[in-house]
Amino acid sequence: MKNLNFIILISYISFSAIKAIIQGDETDCSYDNQNCSACGSTPDIQQLFTYNSNQSCYVTDCLTIGNAKNGWICYSCFNSIQQVTPGPFFDGTNCVNECPQGQQAGDFSSYICEVVNSGQGVNCDQGDQTCNGCGKNVYYAYQFRYNNNGDNLCYVFDCSPNAVKFLNGYVCNSCSTAPGSGNIPKGKFYDHKTCTDTCPPGYKADLSTGFVCLAPPNPGTQVQCSQDSQTCNGCGINPDTVSMFNYVSEQNCSVIDCHYYAFTSLNGWICKSCALATGSDNILQGEFYDPNANTCVKNCPIGTSASANTNYICTPVPVAVPCSNDSQTCKGCGSDATIQGQFNFMSGNNCIVQDCTQVTKFNGWVCNSCSFVNTNTPLQGKYYNGSSCTDNCPPGQSASAATGYTCQVINPGVPVACSKDVQTCGGCGSTSDIQNLFTKLKGTSCQVTDCFSNIIGSNLNGWICNSCQNASGSGNIAAGQYFDGKTCVKNCPIGQQASADTGFVCQNPPNPGANVACSTDSSTCGGCGVTNAIQNLFTHGKGNLCSITDCNLSVVGSNLNGWVCNSCQNASGSGNIAAGQYFDGKTCVKNCSIGQQASADTGFVCQNPPNPGATVACSTDSSTCGGCGATNVIQNLFTHGQGNVCSVTDCKLFVVGSNLNGWVCKSCSLASGSSNIPVGQYYDGKTCVADCPSGQSATADTGYMCKTSSNPASGNNNQSTTSDTSLIIYILGFANILNLLF
Ligand SMILES: *[C@@H]1O[C@H](CO)[C@@H](O)[C@H](O)[C@H]1NC(C)=O
Ligand SMILES: *[C@@H]1O[C@H](CO)[C@@H](O)[C@H](O)[C@H]1NC(C)=O
Ligand SMILES: *[C@@H]1O[C@H](CO)[C@@H](O)[C@H](O)[C@H]1NC(C)=O
Ligand SMILES: *[C@@H]1O[C@H](CO)[C@@H](O)[C@H](O)[C@H]1NC(C)=O
Ligand SMILES: *[C@@H]1O[C@H](CO)[C@@H](O)[C@H](O)[C@H]1NC(C)=O
Ligand SMILES: *[C@@H]1O[C@H](CO)[C@@H](O)[C@H](O)[C@H]1NC(C)=O
Ligand SMILES: *[C@@H]1O[C@H](CO)[C@@H](O)[C@H](O)[C@H]1NC(C)=O
Ligand SMILES: *[C@@H]1O[C@H](CO)[C@@H](O)[C@H](O)[C@H]1NC(C)=O
Ligand SMILES: *[C@@H]1O[C@H](CO)[C@@H](O)[C@H](O)[C@H]1NC(C)=O
Ligand SMILES: *[C@@H]1O[C@H](CO)[C@@H](O)[C@H](O)[C@H]1NC(C)=O
Q1: What keywords appear on the UniProt entry (predicted)?
Q2: Is 47 in the pocket of ligand 1 (CB under 6 A)?
Q3: pTM
């Protein structure tokens, strides 16, 4: 246990040692930058510094500086909580505590040891002995030392480039006589780039110009930016730019000097005033100010424009809005000529505000078109709230293209139960446009978000009508709980009905059929037709009863059979399938065609009546016809009579088919009607024949099957011709059937 604690302690110590950092002291190498880019000559070194809220830079971690060194690092890390470097000065190789003989280092030299070459005295102190008059900010002043030997002059402490960060006329003048080598360029005057002894032609420099080469000012032209007709305070938003102007008269001011060196910052009024200034070395000429490029431009960038109303600042232009209601004019963009006249027609249904700064009358279209043009306060916001443009409609109101971007009270509908999935309002309409008009509530409830007719547009259906029927407010869709296919109505057209089942759409009621006994399993209507389409037309009732749900022709279509006909024969309403209790193979008929019959047994399909055979004595048990054939199929062709008597129920060829034997032949040989199996009382193994083949005979004992006879004399001997005849009869019978079918 003790050992374990010890190990934990060890690891804690090593862990914190790894995490420990030693932060350096703050330095002045930030100058007036907002970063530490001046703290080293390479990014590697610059990255070692952190810029802080004191606008200073310090070495982030003196333990991780590696071999990187310069004066600022030496200083920052020497003055850290623990002295990490051996001294605050950089001698070119190492951090040292003292510079080599004859050299000095300090803030002025970026803590690099060097031979100090001081400048001569310059008269730029303002009497406060700080040399603050020697430059436009303290960083200029820091380069000077005030000499109090009675001369009240300021001296550049060290004219080497390490020390001089900021040039101006006083610096140039002081350093122009500095001893030693490696100094900044020599020259008494500052020409806005470097120190020089000769100013450009037309320029002059002396103590009165601060030793800066200056030409006579190139004044700008008058611009109307005085707001108080007294000062030029309206010509800029800060004192620096305002002081560039001279007040002239009335609302007019003009830029005092358009020379590029006269400005520290630009604005649209400066650009405008200097756009026509004469003389050379002026700021780039162009009457508009492009804030992104921070320069004057002759043309604003695409998508922006400028005018006096934008203070000549290039400003985003209005956007097109879809308010033209005739694709020719902007008359749809407002209710009066003033608003309409503020728009220019573009194309399609688009119009655009001509000049957002000239707008005198507002509405939603104006606000929306001008929403990106932010110079005028009343134009801030995409929507119109009745008094001004706003980005937020008041509570309970909304705006969209449908409301002309005018904030409008929302007139919600009441909840209706059209959510099928309890999660979306997808069940409330067949299109997403309709579905999106609803807000989902709890459970199956959805409600129309806003019943305003411009929002609903043509996206109507029964659920919309039902939800909006009692909505308050004006401008709503027609009030009415049902949808008649065109609009919401309070009552459906005569004869039509609507309910939640029909989605509140007015519909003709179904014309149900009567009950018919076609259910074979007492629970479905599967027995009522051979196709699903027919079965689905039926509704199951009690027991074996089913009825057609709707006898309307457009519902039933061609899905007909006898049960359908029978159920629909008395259906009320119009537009139903043909009335008739029987199906003739094509349509429902009141009577079958002559010779045909229909009944429940034929499924109410018209059929020719059966051609029953004669009785034959083939029942062996006096109760069934099991003795009349070897197969069930043949036995089932017979109907049992009394005793041992059976008869073929229907001798038609399409009923009997090839299920022949002697009893069948015998029974059917006396059948009436047409289309029967071949006539012949004997079965020769293939068909019914009137005479057995030669040498064969048949009797009740052989089941009327031709068999080789022990006494040929008792057999039939004129076989050869009748056999052919039977065949012909068979073919004729078959042809009759074909006739029937076609
Ligand atoms: C540092 O600041 C100066 C002055 O604000 C700026 O010009 C320069 O681009 C900046 N450098 C970096 C690396 O941010
Ligand atoms: C800013 O400077 C003050 C005074 O030197 C110092 O107390 C403070 O910690 C500095 N702030 C930061 C963020 O370093
Ligand atoms: C004011 O300046 C405008 C041009 O910006 C000029 O048309 C107008 O004449 C000037 N007014 C006076 C009184 O000079
Ligand atoms: C367009 O809108 C205006 C203003 O609401 C209206 O007076 C005019 O009749 C409309 N024109 C058309 C074609 O709808
Ligand atoms: C309209 O919007 C403006 C700007 O958001 C707001 O100051 C004003 O109170 C609003 N007026 C109404 C009636 O909502
Ligand atoms: C609409 O108002 C009528 C009359 O007040 C009322 O009978 C009906 O139930 C209301 N419908 C809905 C959906 O609220
Ligand atoms: C149809 O009406 C006739 C005459 O009223 C009636 O005899 C028959 O039973 C009805 N049929 C059905 C299926 O209701
Ligand atoms: C039959 O149904 C169709 C489609 O549902 C409908 O258009 C027609 O009006 C209906 N006819 C009658 C008479 O109900
Ligand atoms: C249809 O049969 C009925 C009797 O069921 C008869 O009264 C009627 O005349 C018959 N109609 C036709 C067109 O044969
Ligand atoms: C022979 O055939 C003829 C004609 O089919 C028939 O009338 C006659 O009865 C037959 N004779 C016998 C013995 O069956």
Answers
A1: Signal
A2: no
A3: 0.48
For residue 57, the SS3 value is strand
Ligand closest to 594 (CA) is 9
| Strand, coil or helix: 462 | helix
pLDDT of residue 127: 87
Dihedral, 267, 269, 272, 277 alpha carbons, nearest 10: -90
Q: Which two tokens stand for residue 378?
A: 């009343």
Give the residue-averaged pLDDT of 4-21. Answer: 47
> How far is the centre of ligand 5, averaged over its atoms, from the C-alpha of 367 (Å)?
13
- pLDDT tens-digit profile of 550-587? 999 999 999 999 999 999 999 998 899 999 999 999 99
CA distances from 39 to 28, 31, 59, 112, 362 (A): 9, 9, 10, 12, 55
Query: Does residue 385's CB lie within 6 angstroms of at least one atom of ligand 5?
Result: yes
Amino acid at 107: D
Who's near 390: CB < 8 A, 6+ residues apart? 367, 380, 381, 383, 384, 407
What pLDDT shows up at residue 495? 85
User: What atom in ligand 9 is closest to the CA of residue 591?
Assistant: 1
Q: In testing the pocket of ligand 10, which one of 716, 721, 725 has its CB within 8 Å of the most ligand atoms?
A: 716
Structure token pair of residue 41: 């000559």
Check residue 303 and give its pLDDT: 77
Question: Does an H or E element contain 739, and which?
Answer: helix 719-741
Q: What is the CA radius of gyration of the chain?
A: 56
* Nearest ligand 4 atom to alpha carbon 340: 4
Question: Higher confidence at residue 411 or residue 162?
Answer: 411
CA distance 742 to 403: 68
